[in-house]
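Data availability (excerpt). The following record was deposited with the supplementary files.
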Amino acid sequence: MKILLAVDGSDHSYEAVRALKYLARAEELHLVHVLDVPSPAYPMMMPEVAQELYETVERNMRDDGTRLLDRIVSLLPLDVGPVTKHLVVGSPAEQIVGLAQQLKVDLMLLGTRGLGPIKERLVGSVSHRVLTFAPGAKLIVAGPLKRLRHILLPLQGTYDADHALSFLQRQPLREPPTITLLTVLPHTRPPWPVDAVSAEHMETHSLRKAKDFLDDLVVKLGPSGYRTRVVTTLGTPVDGILQEAKATSTDLILMGSRGRRGVTRMVLGSVSHALLHQGTYPLMIVG
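Predicted structure:
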């Protein structure tokens, strides 16, 4: 498995480094630090002076970035795999996504500074943009990942289920955790008049079908050595996921991509973005 770890020196960045100890040994581990060098903002400054100032700032930031990457290497867990360092200049989100595409990495790992939902909605953060636009699996660490014994896997259909199962069957973790497969169905009422008993029967039937779907996935996960449990419930997706995560002391929420891309995903949002805004649990998106 090829892993790209993006670091910026923040506390959450170091938490992402520590999270590597739960992942299987990497075929390649790429460390990237992006220098977002500011341009001089003085309109009356001569171009030659502005260029010299920019180069001085970039040189100092490059020295700091080199020291940061060296420090990260010294903190890596044992037997993490062969390491390559990358120090690049540009927009952090664009550079990280571009490098991931170039290297064809299987997993991207980074921390989030937790800017809050309103500011993230308006201007975006690096973690938000990586989650939105980057291909493959992404592990976003919003706080300490102290252990990885229990994963919550919310599923809404075959598309995200296929991506999640494909990733888990590759044995990406050092120790197989317990996985709770969860489906949260909305309270459904038909558009025509119906009595309470009939409505309850319809919801019971939907829950039974959802459980059958999850039971089939458990069978597929069996050969990979994971311990599993199945939960189906009624409610709203985000609330249902967070309630189950709290009830089971979940260490990581893993979700499959539902296939929305680009502007549609940015404007409309998604369950995964809502969970990222909550910042309560480390979040892994695969697909």
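Summary of structural features: Residues 114-124, 259-269 have pLDDT under 50 and may be disordered.
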